[in-house]
Amino acid sequence: MNVLPYKINIIIVLTALGSIVSLSTLAQTKALVRIGAANTQSLDEGWLFARYGLQPDGSRKEEPANLETETLNDAHWQKLNLPHDWAIAGPFRIEPTGETGKLPWKGIGWYREHFTVATADAGKRFFVDFDGAMAYAKIYLNGNYVDTWPSGYFSLGMDLTPFIKPGKENVIAVRLDTENWDSRWYPGAGIYSRV
Questions:
Q1: Quick one: what percent of the chain has pLDDT higher than 70?
Q2: Which of the listed CATH numbers 3.30.479.10, 2.60.120.260, 2.30.40.10, 3.40.50.300 matches domain 11-177?
């Protein structure tokens, strides 16, 4: 069994009566051990991304409403795998402060991940753990608000059970906002660690 290091951003863990079981219908099939739980699933691959607010060239792109909805047509969004830091794509600009690397890290980023849960997994508990999402993360599942976490430097875990739809497509949407935030060093921007 391939065991990945502890530093993992987003995983889904199913529990039933205190035992850990695998999520068999996700597209990713990497065997993981997370905090002692075997057979957790990575959500590292197949994300979609769109950037709003401040843009790399200094312009502004308005953020549309309802980007968290499960029926949103996100076919035109950028396809990527995590980890992802939207500012690293640059370009370097003279206007941003030097201590933050002259990279355009301020903005609003939306990430979406589509996945299916087997009908047989109905009645089980579902959790998602983020070890790093910069910053002010708002998490939604199937259009439902799950929780907010302001810090991009501390991990967060959330119970998705009330909003999971076994046997159907599910959509996690993550909104990150680095616009109202300052830093003494390059802070990053996005879901920046392995999943």
A1: 77
A2: 2.60.120.260
